[in-house]
Amino acid sequence: MKQIPDLGKNTLDKPDPWAKFRGLTWWQLVLSIAPILLLPIGGAIGGAIGGAGLFANLSLARKQLRTPPKVLAMLGVALGSYLGYALVAGLLYNLIKG
Question: Total domain count for the chain?
């Protein structure tokens, strides 16, 4: 009998780009993705700050913390990303417009 290949496996031995998101609950996914929403708002600067916030939240989501502190920490990272973008954008605006 002929073996049917498992299409769920990566046959090219490439790393799974979605591996960091697998196994998270819905609220962890939402809070992890929240900072990257700066990308359409802030372009490259927003994307860089949002990407850093995304990876920080993914790291927090994998830590062995109870749920309330984890939620507060992830919300803090998301809020810090938005505030950091506002600060950087404001400073660049003042430097350019003088």
Answer: 1
Residue length of the chain? 98
At residue 53, φ and ψ (nearest 5 deg) are -65, -40
- What the block records as the tokens of 21 is 């998101």
pTM of this prediction? Answer: 0.80
Angle (deg, nearest 10), helices 67-97 and 38-62: 150
What percent of the chain is predicted at pLDDT more than 70? 87
CB 50 within 8 A of CB 81: yes
Specify the amino acid at residue 16. D
Residue 59 located in a structural domain = yes
Q: Tell whether 48 is covered by a domain.
A: yes
Residue 52 lies in a domain: yes
Question: Nearest 5°: phi and psi at 37?
Answer: -70, -5
Q: Give the CA dihedral 42, 46, 50, 52, nearest 10 degrees.
A: 170
